[in-house]
Amino acid sequence: MTVNLITGVGGFVASHLADYLLEKGEQVVGTYRWNEDLSRIKHIKDKITMIPADLNDMSSLLKALETKPDYIYHLAAESYVNDSFDRPIETMRTNAVGTTNLLEAIRLTIDQSKTCQACEGYGSWDPKIHVCSSSEYYGQVTEEDIPINELCQPRPANPYAASKVAADMIAYVYFKYYGLKIIRTRMFTHTGPRRTMMSAECAFAKQIAEFEKELHEFVKDDSKELRKEFILKHGNLDSVRTFADVRDAVKAYYLLLHNCTPGEVYNIGGETEMKIETMLKTLIDMSPIGDKIKLEQDPKLLRKADVTLQIPDCTKFKKESGWEPEIPFDKTMEDLLDFWRQNV
Fold this sequence. Notes:
The chain has 344 residues and is of the alpha/beta class. The protein is 40% helix and 17% strand. Helix 4 (88-115) packs parallel to helix 5 (159-176). The longest helix is centred in the first third of the chain and has 28 residues, at 88-115. It is globular and about 75 Å long. The two termini are 40 Å apart. The relative contact order is 0.13.
């Protein structure tokens, strides 16, 4: 049976990838940190080989690699941009140094397997490795760069982005110098159910769900007075994004390791392009109290350096993998809003 190792298996994208691999009848090994929230995989946890590990603890990474995975999906990361401003050192340590630790652990394990006579079966172990970078690699691009291809220079606009540039580059070094079968991706905006990081669409969906909950409680208690309007706080609504569904994203990652070329890097993203303002209007229109929701910009939600244009050229990846996004944008937003309705 094909063995897949997912780092950070309790994460948003990782949980959907685990679902997808299990549906295909493949084995899933997942690493997790001792204090990690594993609620996203509670429905499949008993089907996963769970291994406690930390990207900054080499011994735990070596332990995870004893499972001899055929494919390694490196998804563990400190991934919230806003937190990276407050914790830049921890972000860099986890994403840049942590990725180096993982790749070094893989290299050492491969080298040991080639020389250890007692380790029968290890000699042929040479996994394909996905290192997940980010569209934040490109940072604040110009109009001339649109659509963004893989040759666009990096202009990181936050500590998270800088850490992902570093991880991207060290992954290439480990391919070029050490010969590891590493493929890098720079995934553009992707979302859907189980996403809890307060990116724009989640912050909006959460607020709308809270407004609806207040309406529900009003109906149950006629002594309360229903507000005439609900104020939804937002940041920059003019940023342009290309949205993809997380369930399409994990299919892309699967096809990546089965069809694409080690040493290469690929942009992956959806085909639905719009301003954040349009995305917000879509969510509001899905709510029965949409006509009562008023918008108010919150200065605290505005970044000093914002990435305002994220429109990828995914030609290279689609040509090699055969991948095409399938889930409509409205379905993604509907499922995201329903997720928050269940969890406020």
